[in-house]
Task: structure prediction
Amino acid sequence: MRFLVGTSSDGTAVYSMDGDKAVNLSALDARVGSDLMGLINTDGLLDEVAAKAASAPRAAINDITPALPIENPGKIICLGLNYVDHIKEGGYDIPEYPALFMRGRQSLMAAGAPMVRPTVSEKLDYEVELMVIVGKGGRHISEESALDHVFAYTVFNDGSVRDFQRKTHQWTPGKNFDDTGAIGPISVTPDELPEGAVDLKIESRVGDEILQSASTSDMMWSVAKTIALVSQYTTLVSGDYLAMGTPPGVGHAKTPPRWLRPGETVECEIEGIGICASPILDEINLTRREAL
Result:
């Protein structure tokens, strides 16, 4: 199935996609709730609402404002350096173990919301990435069974403030500015995609300018391998986000560097999943959303 979590006049709900229409699954069964956690954690619920959705009323997708697929994830774990050509363009050695870092919740926003260029830097970069939404949690998950732990795939733009990323070896500042990590809007269950979401075109662009273009088959660490490695050191839980790294073509590696500018809209697209679009806005011009 293809899901859109979003807000309309009826509040925030989970929708299933049917072409350019959507079915409000939350209205069909209160157990669904306002994000994907209800479907993930309630055995059999997905099949029940899927059956009901066949004859349910449809709403126009344009009337729905995207929200995060998982509003309050337990963890947001991201891979760096997962495409060889991206590693080379950044001047790094090929690693034997993935570069892993974490994002905080306030760094995330839904697709369609502004990606904010902070007042302290103009070096806001883009990174299109495949993102995994964990379904079944676990520890010491085998690579052979790892894909059974995927509930859905979505699109992520790992917006990075490059000069702050380089201030420390841990990358934390540059990866955690408020409102720089866009997710969604569509989440797709694994049965609708190739196993492990391989061989999908992955691309970022501004208007007609192609910034990145590659295939998810170019990843060094597959989805299954990543889940197995991450679960060696931490227990994955339902609703965790795992971001799978970005292909070559990022702005800091171009000559001259190509930073995102206010007034632009950056689009990140993965074949079979959808487009995550984010208008770029200067922090000084943004009225901050209410504290979470």
Remarks:
- The first strand starts at residue 2 and ends at 8.
- The mean pLDDT is 95.
- The radius of gyration is 18 Å.
